């Protein structure tokens, strides 16, 4: 349940400078246009030598440091001082580390004139990074649908990649509704409640690096809905509302979406607990497709439905290979009474002695009681009640959707 709508959703691609790609999903393979390293590089501080040269004493004919490339005619009985990361001179086919040498002579300025090889056993190409040994020209260095994080940014910088084609992150507008809803800092009069949905849902979006557009609180009038929705459509790709989707006489949000904006309602009542009134619709506004999720006003219902419906949609637009929440198996710590509807029951999890996750209810599950989410690690997926199974017994194995890392 909760992911059927993903079939009509697809993401958009755009080019971004590599420095702005962090946390985006890659839209195509990134291919190296050149090898790395682009030159044979020394792995150690030491001396570039000829492996077949058996001379014990070597004349130091020059020095190569990182960022410097000089031509040396390396012959038998000679060597070139090199540093870690510096170019290995032509003809040299090994580097012997400083620790395996000793200085024989220096000039008046302290520069090395000759050294002694204390350890003659050398392998060809010893301590040399060959051209393309890290990255070959034409190699796929980051694959399509890979999430770009710090390591990937470093790889792109190393390989000179200045931009990448990535899935565009959607902008999400949050709009609360209701004559009785006031801002969180407002003293309460009888009959009014403070809005917590924009705050809690907003931070869920921030956690996922999504740009949030706060559209405020609309009163329960068609004119207010139209005004606030138009602002949301202008600013965002996804619009998430809370409230005004139940069966009350003021719950006219769906009507406004359909009649005034031509929205197509894909689903409008769901056989689940909590979140039965949740509605998903799409429309075209100024030539652009908009996705609208109308969530219930009760805080827990809004929170649960956001996880079940909105987050998978966002992840699909962002290019995730698997945008759905993957269920895990857990064991019930105690009996749980079942509802007539499938239920997403809030639980916290602990490991038992057998390393099995054990689910403990967070307490009363009323859709208005946000405290039931406070310590929750997961939503249990409970089946509907039947005459044969009114209760799930302690020890039963059920599926759960993780909402926190365990």
Automatic annotation (TrEMBL):
Catalytic activity field: molybdopterin + ATP + H(+) = adenylyl-molybdopterin + diphosphate; adenylyl-molybdopterin + molybdate = Mo-molybdopterin + AMP + H(+)
This protein's pathway: Cofactor biosynthesis; molybdopterin biosynthesis
Record carries keyword Coiled coil: no
Example of a GO cellular component annotation carried by this entry: cytosol
Cofactor (UniProt): Mg(2+)
Keywords: ATP-binding, Magnesium, Metal-binding, Molybdenum, Molybdenum cofactor biosynthesis, Multifunctional enzyme, Nucleotide-binding, Transferase
Listed PANTHER family: GEPHYRIN, MOLYBDOPTERIN BIOSYNTHESIS PROTEIN
Protein name as catalogued: Gephyrin
Lineage: Eukaryota, Metazoa, Ecdysozoa, Arthropoda, Chelicerata
């Amino acid at each position: 349940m909760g992911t059927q709508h993903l079939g009509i959703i697809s993401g958009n691609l755009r080019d971004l400078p590599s420095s702005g790609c962090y946390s985006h999903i890659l839209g195509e393979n990134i291919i190296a246009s050149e090898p790395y390293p682009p030159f044979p590089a020394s792995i150690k501080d030491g001396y570039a030598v000829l492996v077949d040269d058996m001379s014990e004493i070597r004349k130091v004919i020059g020095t190569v440091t990182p960022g410097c490339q000089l031509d040396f005619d390396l012959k038998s009985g000679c060597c070139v001082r090199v540093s870690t990361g510096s170019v290995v001179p032509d003809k040299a086919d090994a580097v012997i580390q400083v620790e395996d040498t000793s200085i024989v002579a220096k000039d008046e300025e302290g520069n090395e004139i000759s050294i002694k090889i204390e350890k003659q056993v050398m392998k060809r190409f010893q301590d040399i990074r060959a051209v393309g040994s890290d990255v070959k020209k034409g190699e796929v260095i980051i694959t399509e649908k890979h999430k770009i994080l710090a390591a990937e940014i470093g790889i792109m910088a190393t390989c000179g990649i200045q931009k990448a084609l990535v899935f565009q992150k959607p902008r999400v507008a949050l709009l609360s509704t209701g004559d009785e809803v006031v801002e969180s800092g407002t003293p309460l009069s009888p009959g009014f409640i403070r809005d917590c949905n924009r705050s809690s849902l907003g931070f869920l979006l921030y956690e996922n690096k999504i740009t949030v557009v706060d559209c405020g609180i609309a009163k329960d009038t068609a004119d207010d809905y139209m005004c606030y929705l138009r602002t949301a459509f202008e600013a965002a790709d996804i619009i998430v509302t809370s409230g005004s989707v139940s069966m009350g006489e003021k719950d006219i949000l769906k009507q406004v979406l359909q009649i005034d904006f031509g929205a197509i309602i894909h689903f409008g009542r769901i056989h689940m607990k909590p979140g039965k009134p949740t509605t998903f619709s799409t429309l075209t506004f100024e030539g652009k497709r908009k996705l609208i999720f109308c969530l219930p006003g009760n805080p827990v219902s809004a929170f649960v439905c956001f996880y079940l419906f909105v987050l998978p949609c966002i992840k699909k637009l962002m290019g995730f290979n698997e945008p759905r929440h993957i269920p895990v198996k857990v064991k019930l710590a105690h009996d749980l009474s079942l509802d007539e509807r499938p239920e997403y029951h809030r639980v916290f999890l602990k490991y038992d002695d057998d390393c099995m996750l054990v689910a403990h209810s967070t307490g009363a599950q009323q859709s208005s009681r946000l405290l039931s989410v406070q310590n929750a690690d997961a939503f249990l997926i409970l089946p509907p009640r039947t005459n044969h199974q009114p209760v799930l017994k302690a020890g039963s194995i059920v599926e759960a959707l993780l909402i926190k890392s365990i």
